[in-house]
């Protein structure tokens, strides 16, 4: 289908493009930016004056909950939610049931995602079988089935030596390993950042060193093994400082943060609201400032939702008995725009961290607006606000931002030139 | 972006009266004083031939204990009985929880039995808040201890003990000794002492038993008994759980006693009329020497007596606040 | 409507109470005032009678029958009875008798201390609005008020009565 998007402010962080112009799409690809090709004859056109057109967002961590946790979400519901948040490509973590450690599970996810047709899904395979941290998963079989990277999530390897071997094996085949660096022993039993708020509430703490000790170790192992590494879900200022140091000495590591970590701090816990129960935990204002600075400077090149939808009951218990996580992928763009509204980032930088940055970190074929590339894009309106939760697509309503007015509205999301979401 | 759910303190009604009793955080000094004054009146009732008043006749109070307790449970039972309420006690740790019933379902079942008030003890910090907010908004919730967070009736009975022996809080030095980190009693005591105007609150413990950020309570930290106890008016000893020896918090009970045990010799460094308190049950020879626990300066058994009066005060005030709130809401609706 | 002077009422009440106690052959009465106004009236009455008997004070907050409607009185204080109740002749003193419910609460409370030999009820004013079969043995004056009117006693010295109109 031929489609022209007319008069939008087109921002492509990958190429530095930022101007009011037209986009012309055909057969799922962008075929021209600016003047239409001779004899294009668009079947349809969208008057996009006043809207921003940007690459479809790339979210490095969206738990789809399928297979295994259909009460929390499924591939159709959560990719629909993602499209509403402006996302066209997403990675799903391996903590499904069964664990994403076989090509069968990988194929099942990819099939369901294709059927749903809301988003491009790039699975992250388990680094160890059953995420048990003991035996390597069949990484090459998983890669061939479609896994783009490998991770053990927050589940530590039992032995550092086994982890080291896993990294060396992955390095042999130029596979990317994603770390969620948190030391199991230091974090054991913890529910909140170890600091004044947790002490006051009597919640067992997770010290900052749970992140930094693991991170320092992981960075050294990455350096030794030469594996391609991405560090996900950083929470502390000292943590991102370790990444910055590693990058400065030439280690090609990338990193992402959860969007909610750039907005919330541990002070949100003061009423014991389980909506703010996340792992790794919300930390202090100083940590949030450190994360924001690292996002601005590019040390952290990706902002992800770390979307974790839950059924109601999972959050209906005393704080410590609830499951961690926030459902927020469908607010990704409008919620991230609060960072621009608050003057923390300019719009092109924010869009870079939401598209080109994450795509490059995991070498995904996504995240840019270029002639010949897939027509994955989002059209949004900066002049209109979104009341979070007015329409809710995710099966998980565990979102503390519901009810807030957010400073942008997604009008259209296109995936391969097709409308995957329309407000 | 600030959380949207910042709101009027959960435990106060629209008139600022207690409608739940969850923690001492945010309660004004006047309200704490009112609790102590009311408890004084109930203490007098305890000395009569008939130790019972008809105040809560026809009301049903459920003690729901998800954690074992003898002292707290029995004093809550006695308090409710002396107010003429009907009382039932459930030890959930041994019944439904092991059958997989959730906290939510357990309490909703009890609510359906037309209970007017729950006294809840639970191992998770924030459990009482959760119940007051999400489970039974029209039932008064009394926190009988939640995780490490709060034990507000113990806090208030400790305050009543101090006030009855020392008169007021204005010129007192109070030392709290032992496992502060895991202690909901310590947290409630620190908040209460601060709110009631105690100028010198000390905590004495090794670093492994002190929570990070303890300065926020307005206390001075000591790691040595001799300096920490010097000239104090009140010594509050905390219970040390056996399991603290595992995980490297302490080498042994013996070493803890050697450094932080309250002995006659150490107590001599406090004021001559200093009182010694302990929430019980005491570990003789671990936190405290028997000669001190049974000695003339010990008020440990008085604490138990005062505990009943304080709990009667809190139960009747919270029931009263629920009544007032319902009336207020009805008037608003009209 | 003019209200009587409490001082004059007290002196008349003292005479009547003495007569009442003589008639009943009560030689050692125990005086109890109901907080707060009743305590003031009792103090004035004891002074008028030249008695140095100890005065007990009763706070009936824990015995009121309107807890479910009105909740707990915020300034409840301990009752203080510096004598035995068991087998004694009690003189219970209150300021204004209206529905009779306070007296019922006071009687209930007294019986939790023991079984008195008798209870004599003394009131400064009887508003003739009883809802229970309770009437004073000795009364200063009986008034009839309209539904909106209330009488308030202030004290302890001097004792003064004031008419309040709820409609205002």
Give the topology:
The complex is a heterotrimer of chains A (423), B (334) and C (168).
Chain A: E1 3-12, E2 17-26, E3 29-33, E4 44-47, E5 51-55, E6 57-59, H1 75-84, E7 87-92, H2 103-116, E8 120-126, H3 139-145, E9 149-151, H4 160-172, E10 176-179, H5 184-187, E11 192-193, H6 196-201, E12 205-206, H7 208-225, E13 228-231, H8 237-248, E14 254-258, H9 285-297, E15 302-304, H10 312-315, H11 332-341, H12 347-354, H13 356-361, E16 377-381, E17 386-387, E18 405-406, E19 409-415, E20 418-422
Parallel strand pairs in A: 1-4, 1-5, 6-7, 7-8, 8-9, 9-10, 10-13, 11-12, 13-14, 14-15
Antiparallel strand pairs in A: 1-2, 2-3, 5-16, 16-19, 17-18, 19-20
Chain B: H1 29-45, E1 60-65, H2 71-82, E2 86-91, H3 103-112, E3 117-122, H4 127-135, E4 140-146, H5 152-166, E5 173-177, H6 184-195, E6 200-204, E7 220-222, H7 225-229, E8 234-237, H8 253-260, H9 264-267, E9 275-277, H10 290-293, H11 300-333
Parallel strand pairs in B: 1-2, 1-3, 3-4, 5-6, 5-8, 6-7, 8-9
Helix pairs in contact in B: 1-5, 1-11, 2-11, 5-6, 5-11
Chain C: H1 6-23, E1 30-34, H2 37-49, E2 55-58, H3 67-70, E3 89-97, H4 101-111, E4 118-126, E5 138-142, E6 149-154, E7 160-165
Parallel strand pairs in C: 1-2, 1-3, 3-4, 4-5
Antiparallel strand pairs in C: 6-7
Helix pairs in contact in C: 1-2
Q: Could you describe the 3D structure shown?
A:
Chain B: Catalyzes the condensation of carbamoyl phosphate and aspartate to form carbamoyl aspartate and inorganic phosphate, the committed step in the de novo pyrimidine nucleotide biosynthesis pathway. Chain B: Pfam families: OTCace, OTCace_N. Chain B: It catalyses: carbamoyl phosphate + L-aspartate = N-carbamoyl-L-aspartate + phosphate + H(+). The complex is a heterotrimer of chains A (423), B (334) and C (168). Chain A is built from 13 helices and 20 strands. Chain A is an alpha/beta fold and 423 residues long. Chain A has 2 domains: 100 residues, Roll (Urease, subunit C, domain 1); 306 residues, Metal-dependent hydrolases (TIM Barrel, Alpha-Beta Barrel), CATH 3.20.20.140. The longest helix of chain A has 18 residues. The model of chain A has no long low-confidence stretch (mean pLDDT 96). Chain B has 2 domains: 152 residues, Aspartate/ornithine carbamoyltransferase (Rossmann fold), CATH 3.40.50; 149 residues, 3-Layer(aba) Sandwich (Rossmann fold), CATH 3.40.50. Chain B is built from 11 helices and 9 strands. The longest helix of chain B has 34 residues. Chain B is globular. The two termini of chain B are 36 Å apart. Chain C has one domain: Rossmann fold (3-Layer(aba) Sandwich), CATH 3.40.50. Chain C is globular, with a radius of gyration of 15 Å. The two termini of chain C are 16 Å apart. The interface between A and B is medium-sized, with 32 and 32 residues.
